[in-house]
Amino acid sequence: xxxxxxxxxxxxxxxxxxxxxxxxxxxxxxxxxxxxxxxxxxxxxxxxxxxxxxxxx
Length: 57
Prior knowledge:
The chain is mainly α. 47% of the residues lie in helices and 0% in strands. The chain has a single domain (7-46), classed as RNA polymerase subunit, RPB6/omega (Eukaryotic RPB6 RNA polymerase subunit, Alpha-Beta Complex), CATH 3.90.940.10. The chain starts with 6 loop residues before the first helix and ends in an 11-residue tail after the last helix.
């Protein structure tokens, strides 16, 4: 389940997660993909990325 993120927030979350994966962070889903960006997109779609957005009020 994903929250209502703007396209900029979504891009930042996916990009940050892809960087983590490329630096050796464990993958949180079972996948046959090897590209960190594709893996992070799949993780985002499944709602398992442990990154949140903190907004100013």
